[in-house]
Protein backbone atom coordinates (compact mmCIF):
# COMPACT_ATOMS: atom_id res chain seq x y z
CA UNK A 1 0.00 0.00 0.00
CA UNK A 2 1.03 3.61 -0.49
CA UNK A 3 2.63 5.03 2.66
CA UNK A 4 0.08 6.84 4.82
CA UNK A 5 -2.99 5.17 3.30
CA UNK A 6 -4.19 3.60 6.56
CA UNK A 7 -4.76 7.05 8.04
CA UNK A 8 -6.66 8.15 4.92
CA UNK A 9 -8.84 5.04 5.19
CA UNK A 10 -9.67 5.73 8.83
CA UNK A 11 -10.70 9.26 7.82
CA UNK A 12 -13.01 7.84 5.13
CA UNK A 13 -14.62 5.41 7.59
CA UNK A 14 -15.29 8.20 10.07
CA UNK A 15 -16.42 10.83 7.55
CA UNK A 16 -18.85 8.55 5.69
CA UNK A 17 -19.79 6.33 8.65
CA UNK A 18 -18.72 3.18 6.85
CA UNK A 19 -18.29 -0.18 8.58
CA UNK A 20 -14.77 -1.62 8.32
CA UNK A 21 -16.07 -5.14 8.95
CA UNK A 22 -18.44 -4.86 5.99
CA UNK A 23 -15.57 -3.74 3.79
CA UNK A 24 -13.65 -6.83 4.89
CA UNK A 25 -16.62 -9.13 4.33
CA UNK A 26 -17.04 -7.76 0.81
CA UNK A 27 -13.35 -8.26 0.07
CA UNK A 28 -13.52 -11.87 1.28
CA UNK A 29 -16.46 -12.54 -1.05
CA UNK A 30 -14.65 -11.00 -4.02
CA UNK A 31 -11.50 -12.98 -3.25
CA UNK A 32 -13.56 -16.18 -3.37
CA UNK A 33 -15.01 -15.22 -6.76
CA UNK A 34 -11.80 -14.25 -8.53
CA UNK A 35 -9.64 -16.81 -10.28
CA UNK A 36 -5.87 -16.81 -10.33
CA UNK A 37 -4.70 -14.80 -13.33
CA UNK A 38 -1.82 -12.83 -14.81
CA UNK A 39 -3.92 -9.64 -14.93
CA UNK A 40 -1.59 -7.85 -12.51
CA UNK A 41 1.31 -8.35 -14.93
CA UNK A 42 -0.93 -7.13 -17.75
CA UNK A 43 -1.68 -3.95 -15.81
CA UNK A 44 2.01 -3.33 -15.19
CA UNK A 45 2.77 -3.76 -18.89
CA UNK A 46 -0.08 -1.44 -19.86
CA UNK A 47 0.91 1.35 -17.45
CA UNK A 48 4.61 1.27 -16.54
CA UNK A 49 6.60 4.15 -18.08
CA UNK A 50 3.66 5.09 -20.35
CA UNK A 51 1.56 8.21 -20.74
CA UNK A 52 -1.80 7.23 -19.26
CA UNK A 53 -5.18 8.91 -19.73
CA UNK A 54 -7.50 8.57 -16.72
CA UNK A 55 -11.08 9.24 -17.76
CA UNK A 56 -14.00 10.10 -15.49
CA UNK A 57 -17.65 10.92 -16.11
CA UNK A 58 -17.59 14.59 -15.18
CA UNK A 59 -19.31 17.33 -17.22
CA UNK A 60 -16.22 17.90 -19.40
CA UNK A 61 -16.23 14.32 -20.73
CA UNK A 62 -18.31 15.28 -23.77
CA UNK A 63 -15.77 17.86 -24.93
CA UNK A 64 -12.89 15.43 -24.29
CA UNK A 65 -14.19 12.57 -26.45
CA UNK A 66 -13.02 13.92 -29.86
CA UNK A 67 -9.48 14.23 -28.47
CA UNK A 68 -9.58 10.82 -26.80
CA UNK A 69 -10.47 9.33 -30.19
CA UNK A 70 -7.40 10.94 -31.69
CA UNK A 71 -4.98 9.16 -29.34
CA UNK A 72 -5.93 5.59 -30.12
CA UNK A 73 -2.67 4.02 -28.90
CA UNK A 74 -2.44 5.92 -25.60
CA UNK A 75 -3.23 3.87 -22.51
CA UNK A 76 -6.72 4.63 -21.18
CA UNK A 77 -8.01 3.86 -17.69
CA UNK A 78 -11.71 4.52 -17.28
CA UNK A 79 -14.02 4.94 -14.29
CA UNK A 80 -17.02 2.71 -14.95
CA UNK A 81 -19.59 5.52 -15.13
CA UNK A 82 -17.79 6.82 -18.22
CA UNK A 83 -17.52 3.41 -19.87
CA UNK A 84 -20.85 3.32 -21.73
CA UNK A 85 -20.34 6.72 -23.35
CA UNK A 86 -16.82 5.85 -24.44
CA UNK A 87 -17.80 2.49 -25.90
CA UNK A 88 -20.65 4.14 -27.82
CA UNK A 89 -17.99 6.42 -29.29
CA UNK A 90 -15.84 3.41 -30.23
CA UNK A 91 -13.27 4.03 -27.49
CA UNK A 92 -12.42 0.76 -25.75
CA UNK A 93 -10.33 1.28 -22.60
CA UNK A 94 -7.30 -0.73 -21.55
CA UNK A 95 -8.44 -0.81 -17.92
CA UNK A 96 -11.81 -0.25 -16.23
CA UNK A 97 -11.86 0.71 -12.55
CA UNK A 98 -15.23 -0.19 -11.06
CA UNK A 99 -17.26 -0.88 -7.95
CA UNK A 100 -19.82 -2.40 -10.34
CA UNK A 101 -22.47 0.34 -10.29
CA UNK A 102 -21.93 1.29 -13.95
CA UNK A 103 -23.92 0.10 -16.95
CA UNK A 104 -24.11 -3.67 -16.50
CA UNK A 105 -24.58 -4.61 -20.17
CA UNK A 106 -21.62 -2.52 -21.26
CA UNK A 107 -19.37 -3.94 -18.54
CA UNK A 108 -20.25 -7.52 -19.47
CA UNK A 109 -19.68 -6.78 -23.16
CA UNK A 110 -16.26 -5.20 -22.59
CA UNK A 111 -15.43 -7.83 -19.98
CA UNK A 112 -15.15 -10.38 -22.80
CA UNK A 113 -12.33 -8.41 -24.46
CA UNK A 114 -8.70 -7.97 -23.42
CA UNK A 115 -9.66 -4.99 -21.22
CA UNK A 116 -8.60 -5.52 -17.59
CA UNK A 117 -11.22 -4.87 -14.91
CA UNK A 118 -10.10 -3.62 -11.48
CA UNK A 119 -13.08 -4.48 -9.29
CA UNK A 120 -13.41 -2.80 -5.92
CA UNK A 121 -15.05 -4.48 -2.91
CA UNK A 122 -16.72 -2.32 -0.29
CA UNK A 123 -19.51 -2.76 2.21
CA UNK A 124 -22.28 -1.53 -0.08
CA UNK A 125 -21.65 -3.64 -3.19
CA UNK A 126 -21.62 -7.24 -1.97
CA UNK A 127 -24.76 -8.05 -3.96
CA UNK A 128 -23.07 -6.98 -7.21
CA UNK A 129 -19.72 -8.74 -6.81
CA UNK A 130 -20.93 -11.75 -8.79
CA UNK A 131 -20.64 -9.59 -11.93
CA UNK A 132 -16.87 -10.06 -11.70
CA UNK A 133 -17.42 -13.62 -12.95
CA UNK A 134 -18.15 -12.11 -16.39
CA UNK A 135 -14.76 -10.46 -16.81
CA UNK A 136 -12.05 -12.32 -18.71
CA UNK A 137 -9.24 -10.28 -17.11
CA UNK A 138 -9.87 -9.10 -13.58
CA UNK A 139 -8.23 -8.24 -10.26
CA UNK A 140 -9.79 -7.18 -6.96
CA UNK A 141 -9.13 -4.20 -4.71
CA UNK A 142 -10.08 -2.99 -1.25
CA UNK A 143 -9.67 0.18 0.82
CA UNK A 144 -8.60 -1.97 3.76
CA UNK A 145 -5.73 -4.44 4.25
CA UNK A 146 -4.89 -6.42 1.09
CA UNK A 147 -4.84 -10.22 1.15
CA UNK A 148 -5.03 -13.16 -1.23
CA UNK A 149 -6.14 -11.91 -4.64
CA UNK A 150 -7.25 -8.54 -3.21
CA UNK A 151 -4.97 -5.51 -3.60
CA UNK A 152 -4.89 -1.95 -2.28
CA UNK A 153 -3.36 0.72 -4.50
CA UNK A 154 -5.13 3.58 -2.70
CA UNK A 155 -8.08 5.75 -3.62
CA UNK A 156 -11.77 6.05 -2.76
CA UNK A 157 -14.03 6.58 -5.80
CA UNK A 158 -13.57 4.88 -9.16
CA UNK A 159 -11.98 8.01 -10.62
CA UNK A 160 -9.33 8.71 -8.02
CA UNK A 161 -8.63 4.96 -7.61
CA UNK A 162 -7.75 4.94 -11.32
CA UNK A 163 -5.19 7.69 -10.70
CA UNK A 164 -3.74 5.88 -7.69
CA UNK A 165 -3.49 2.73 -9.83
CA UNK A 166 -1.60 4.52 -12.59
CA UNK A 167 0.72 6.13 -10.06
CA UNK A 168 1.36 2.80 -8.27
CA UNK A 169 2.49 1.17 -11.50
CA UNK A 170 4.68 4.17 -12.28
CA UNK A 171 3.11 5.68 -15.35
CA UNK A 172 5.42 8.25 -16.88
CA UNK A 173 2.59 10.77 -17.10
CA UNK A 174 -1.02 10.75 -15.92
CA UNK A 175 -3.50 13.01 -17.72
CA UNK A 176 -7.03 13.47 -16.37
CA UNK A 177 -10.13 13.84 -18.55
CA UNK A 178 -13.68 14.34 -17.31
CA UNK A 179 -12.41 14.61 -13.73
CA UNK A 180 -13.96 17.96 -12.79
CA UNK A 181 -14.66 17.66 -9.06
CA UNK A 182 -16.96 20.69 -9.15
CA UNK A 183 -20.50 21.29 -7.92
CA UNK A 184 -22.04 19.90 -11.08
CA UNK A 185 -22.40 16.15 -11.56
CA UNK A 186 -21.85 14.86 -15.09
CA UNK A 187 -24.88 13.45 -16.90
CA UNK A 188 -23.04 10.19 -17.53
CA UNK A 189 -22.96 9.46 -13.81
CA UNK A 190 -26.75 8.95 -13.82
CA UNK A 191 -26.90 10.13 -10.22
CA UNK A 192 -30.37 10.32 -8.70
CA UNK A 193 -31.41 13.67 -7.23
CA UNK A 194 -31.70 11.99 -3.83
CA UNK A 195 -28.06 10.88 -4.04
CA UNK A 196 -26.66 14.21 -5.24
CA UNK A 197 -25.48 15.42 -1.83
CA UNK A 198 -23.52 12.29 -1.01
CA UNK A 199 -22.11 12.15 -4.57
CA UNK A 200 -20.71 15.68 -4.24
CA UNK A 201 -19.27 14.81 -0.84
CA UNK A 202 -17.52 11.79 -2.34
CA UNK A 203 -16.13 13.92 -5.16
CA UNK A 204 -14.73 16.42 -2.66
CA UNK A 205 -13.05 13.59 -0.80
CA UNK A 206 -11.67 12.14 -4.02
CA UNK A 207 -10.18 15.51 -4.95
CA UNK A 208 -8.53 15.86 -1.55
CA UNK A 209 -6.99 12.40 -1.93
CA UNK A 210 -5.55 13.32 -5.32
CA UNK A 211 -4.07 16.47 -3.80
CA UNK A 212 -2.50 14.30 -1.10
CA UNK A 213 -1.13 11.91 -3.73
CA UNK A 214 0.32 14.83 -5.69
CA UNK A 215 2.66 15.60 -2.78
CA UNK A 216 4.54 12.33 -3.38
CA UNK A 217 3.88 11.24 -6.96
CA UNK A 218 5.70 8.61 -8.98
CA UNK A 219 4.33 10.14 -12.19
CA UNK A 220 4.04 13.55 -13.81
CA UNK A 221 0.48 14.76 -13.18
CA UNK A 222 -1.71 16.74 -15.58
CA UNK A 223 -5.40 17.58 -15.87
CA UNK A 224 -7.51 18.83 -18.76
CA UNK A 225 -10.41 19.32 -16.34
CA UNK A 226 -10.82 21.73 -13.42
CA UNK A 227 -7.62 22.68 -11.59
CA UNK A 228 -6.31 20.34 -8.88
CA UNK A 229 -3.42 21.26 -6.59
CA UNK A 230 -0.33 19.37 -7.71
CA UNK A 231 -1.64 18.70 -11.24
CA UNK A 232 -0.57 20.89 -14.14
CA UNK A 233 -3.58 22.30 -15.99
CA UNK A 234 -3.31 21.82 -19.76
CA UNK A 235 -5.55 22.35 -22.78
CA UNK A 236 -6.46 19.58 -25.19
CA UNK A 237 -4.33 21.29 -27.83
CA UNK A 238 -1.24 20.79 -25.62
CA UNK A 239 -1.55 17.00 -25.54
CA UNK A 240 0.74 16.52 -28.52
CA UNK A 241 3.52 18.31 -26.63
CA UNK A 242 3.48 16.09 -23.53
CA UNK A 243 2.84 12.80 -25.34
CA UNK A 244 5.60 13.10 -27.94
CATH topology: sialyltransferase cstii, chain A
Rounded average pLDDT: 93
Report the CATH C-level class. Alpha Beta
Uncertain parts: none
Write down the Rg.
Answer: 16 Å
Number of helices: 9
Helix content: 25-40%
Q: What order do the helices and strands follow?
A: HHHEHEHEHEEEHEHEEH
Note the gap between the termini: 31 Å
Task: Explain this structure.
By secondary structure, this protein is an alpha/beta fold. The protein has a single domain, classed as sialyltransferase cstii, chain A. It has helices at residues 5-16, 20-33, 39-47, 61-70, 80-88, 104-110, 158-168, 196-213, 239-243; strands at 51-55, 75-79, 95-98, 116-120, 137-141, 150-151, 173-177, 220-223, 232-233. Strands 6-5-4-3-2-1-7-8-9 form a nine-stranded parallel sheet. Strand 7, helix 8 and strand 8 (220-223) form a beta-alpha-beta unit. It is globular.
What is the topology?
Blueprint: H1 5-16, H2 20-33, H3 39-47, E1 51-55, H4 61-70, E2 75-79, H5 80-88, E3 95-98, H6 104-110, E4 116-120, E5 137-141, E6 150-151, H7 158-168, E7 173-177, H8 196-213, E8 220-223, E9 232-233, H9 239-243
Parallel strand pairs: 1-2, 1-7, 2-3, 3-4, 4-5, 5-6, 7-8, 8-9
Amino acid sequence: MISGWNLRYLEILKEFKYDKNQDLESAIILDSILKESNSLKQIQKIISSKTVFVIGAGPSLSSAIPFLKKYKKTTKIVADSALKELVENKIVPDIVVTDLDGDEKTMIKIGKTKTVFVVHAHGDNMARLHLAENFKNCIGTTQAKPFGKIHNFGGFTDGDRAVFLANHFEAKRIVLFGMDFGNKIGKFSHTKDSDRKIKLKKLRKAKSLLQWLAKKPRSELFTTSNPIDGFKKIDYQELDIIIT
